[in-house]
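It is worth pausing here to work through a concrete case rather than discussing structure prediction in the abstract. The textbook approach is simple: state the sequence, then state the predicted structure, then interpret. We follow exactly that order.
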Amino acid sequence: MSKQSNAVRTNIRLAQKTWGDLPRTALHSLRKLTTEFGLSVSLGDVQLIDGRWYVTHAGLLRLAQRRRCQGIRTLLQQDVSDPIAGRWVFKATVYKIPASEGFVGYGDADPSNVSTLIRGAELRIAETRAVNRALRKAYGIGLCSVEELRWPSSAGSSDNQSRPSKPCASNGSNNGHPRLRDQLCLLIRKYELDPTLVKRYAADFCGTEAIRDASRDLVEAFISTLAEEAAKDRAALVCKLNSYNQLEEVKS
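Step two, the predicted structure:
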């Protein structure tokens, strides 16, 4: 019980440090997410966007691992996918126990419902969305996942049109919200990453000259992605970060 209580206090403290004073309903939801599912703010398992909690792909995978998930199977739905149009649909099945029928979830992605910054990755996004939905069903999580969010892009819109008209403050936040820097620093320290290379990766991910120019939602999405990549394969992430160092040397 004491370990669980410590986890709740840690999550609440970091959440308030990251997003400011939270309403009672948000704190109550965070307590429930912590005690029932063991989700961690510091690891990027959950994100607060527009006052609502969203679970992340990394958080769902960690939950499945803790609950000894037996396996996840994904299958491309070729009959409703359209490679030429960049539309992909996946079916994912999560098996909590051996010989079970599994929990099924579907995910789709096309240029109209993904960020313009990650065009060309619709197939991977569709699979991730399907896995997220299946995992949420399997473990009874009513929260939508960050990766399932529909990005506000439409035909003829540019990257700048999909972002707030006002640039963010230098801490990567807007609308008076507190810094996301602390959460990013925790990940850098936890996985012993190069801060300079992480900043370059962040700027590239957000499509801006510097991370301070990105919208809060993009910064939150980057932190979630970084946490997922670091937890899944730190060595691969380090190689990716080193590539930004090589690009900088070429430019110079």
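Step three, interpretation. The mean pLDDT is 82. The longest strand covers residues 88-95.
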